[in-house]
Amino acid sequence: MEKRYRVNEIFYSLQGEGRWTGTPMVFLRFSGCNLGCPFCDTDFSAFEPMDAETIAARISEKATSGCKRVCITGGEPLLQLDSALIDILHGAGFTLHVETNGTLPRPENLDWVTMSPKGSVHPGMDPDEIKIVYQAGISEEEVDAWRRYGDKKYYCIQPCDTGDSVLNTENIRSATEFVLSHPGWRLSLQTHKITGIK
Predict the structure, then answer these.
(1) pTM greater than 0.85
(2) Quick one: which of 37, 25, 19, 27 has its CA closest to 157?
């Protein structure tokens, strides 16, 4: 039987975070995660089972403007993403970006991997970008520990959206101060939320 992937949603928008902020992409959001981060805004109970060919067709439908970048996210996309789906999407001409928590092995042939670590990282993970979800009070030592991946990567600090405006303001202030005192890092704001797009 052909594999079915649990797809939460497929939509076209701008990348709101990190190195590729402002870049048009089709987003493939999988349902499910191996962690339980309290700030996650994905409804894992909602999904549609799809085979790889259907996913590729839906992505192509959303890419009506000629967009050729796909961001595969979740939840944790590496629970489901495999070489079969990667090959089909590459065969359709898409460049593949993945956003992962880094706890699982990195599949081959991905074009860009953003890792947002939330604990132990798989030893085979080799991300192109590190994105720390930053909350006021996190230690500098904890954040700087992720620099071990080398100076050729992009390092982003993203203030955590807690849903509380007072806490969010403090997270932004604290993250800004951190980046000002650590020039190797960049501030990443969730611009899709600021602009009111998906």
Answers:
(1) yes
(2) 19
